[in-house]
Amino acid sequence: MKYIDEYRNKGMVQYYAGQIKNISTKHIRLMEVCGGHTMSIQKFGLPYLLPETIELVSGPGCPVCVTSREYIDRAVAYSRRDDVIITTYGDLIRVPGSTSTLEKEKASGADIRIVYSILDAMLIAKKNRRKKVVFLGIGFETTAPSSAAGIIKAQTAALNNFLVYSAHKVMPPAMETLIDEGVNIDGYIGPGHVSTITGQGIYMNIPKKYNMGVVISGFEPVDLMQSIYMLVQQIEDNDPKVEIQYTRVVKPEGNIIAQQMLDEVFEYRDDWWRGLGILKNSGLKINKKYESYDAEKMIEVEVEPTIEPKGCICGLILKGEKKPKDCGLFGSTCTPSDPVGACMVSSEGACQAYYLYNR
Amino acid sequence: MCLSIPARVDKIIGDTATCTVGESSYDASLALISNENVKVGDYVLIHTGFAIQKLDTEEANQTLQTFEEFKALNIEMDKEEKDQNSRLI
User: Which of A27, A119, A249, A325 lies at a C-alpha separation of 20 to 30 Å from A239?
Assistant: First the structure.
């Protein structure tokens, strides 16, 4: 057992496809709010296995996609300083800012390095004591604890030339805002790895306040089909609740140590999401205790005015109101090799998923 | 972004676990699951260099309890795919 192949069992996928068909009577739209789910659903062609009554839509589950151009612009401005080394996950390198990308800056000589982990960025800081090493901290609750653990470790090791530029965000405010805005959905396929950290508690408001179910799902086709089945059952029985399908990983209480580290290092702030605007308490800012590790606080730069791309409907796609194929740029002026919007750049953006698997 | 991979723990030194991921090996930090009593042979989920959870074998098996029932159907579908030279799923 390697915990992957078993969950790609064709027979089980077919079985759940049959079960879903048997019980589904109502026309429903289910939204996934995790880029990993978006990718899996398109890659394995799951929409084609579902009856016509069920439509799957993608939500704001790709952190790169919801991040503002202003964030990229500021990272670009940091990278132009001679005393700065930028370290980043590969996801961000090609994301367009207003007039540049980190990739272009790197080509023009900026010291920008791709890392897999914040721990790698800290090694770079250790070896380059005369430079300020800025780590671009992006991601939801899954990724933010590693940034917190890195910052705590940097403090213990007195690694004072290491800084984090946080764009970390939390999921629940976005999920509630979509419902408040009247986006037409009937249930959420809950993000499996966000929930690994947070546990199921963060979604409890959704059935209570909005009468809508959440099923926390794994990422393989069997997981997703089983989760869809569980959601359909909830909706048919009119019994919305929070359930965990991904029980081999997600504990109801989540990962307590990771939660404690988040609390130790970060505080909430209002943050801007592409497509949704400013959401209250949806972003994570480095708190006062650790502010000497906060790039925003410690390095002053002038940031160019933000310019949004014309014709790109990324924002509407992230809200599930439009599909990638509804965009005039999709597949013509906007492709993975020459992307206009972040949803086409990111390997888990809805546009790239559709471009690769469902064009 | 939230992509995480299940990996088998082969060696533990301090809070670093050397894990097998597919055919390669990776050193992951156990700092976020230091309360989990991870042992050699356990599977953990790795995300951006950190193990974020230990996999629960019992739960994993329960999800797959009906796995065996589908053996025959799988063989049949594999044969059909081979005959048609295209993937069914």
Answer: A249
Instruction: Render pLDDT for A119-162 as a digit per residue (tens, 0 to 9).
Output: 999 999 999 999 999 999 999 999 999 999 999 999 999 999 99
Tokens matching residue A355: 């471009």
ipTM of the prediction: 0.88
Residues 5-34 of B with CB under 8 A from A: 6, 8, 29, 31-34
Q: Measured between alpha carbons, how far is A174 from A155 in angstroms, rounded to an integer?
A: 32
Neighboring chain B residues of A215 at a CB cutoff of 8 Å: none
Neighbours of A109 (CB within 10 A): 10
Of B2, B47, B62, the CB nearest to A34: B2
B50-B56-B61-B62 Cα dihedral, nearest 10 degrees: -120
A 205-234 → B contacts, CB under 8 A: 221-223, 226
* pLDDT, tens digit (0-9, with 9 covering 90-100), for B73-84: 667 777 777 787
Residues of chain A positioned with their CB less than 8 A from the CB of B49: 116-120, 146
For residue A37, the domain's CATH number is: 3.40.50.11740
Its domain, for residue A35, covers: 1-359
Instruction: Tell me the Cα Rg of chain A.
Output: 21
Please state, in angstroms and as integers, the Cα–Cα distance from residue A157 to each residue in A123, A160, A223, A238, B32, following that order: 11, 9, 41, 54, 18
Q: Based on the structure, what is the number of domains in chain A?
A: 1
CA distance B12 to chain A (A): 17
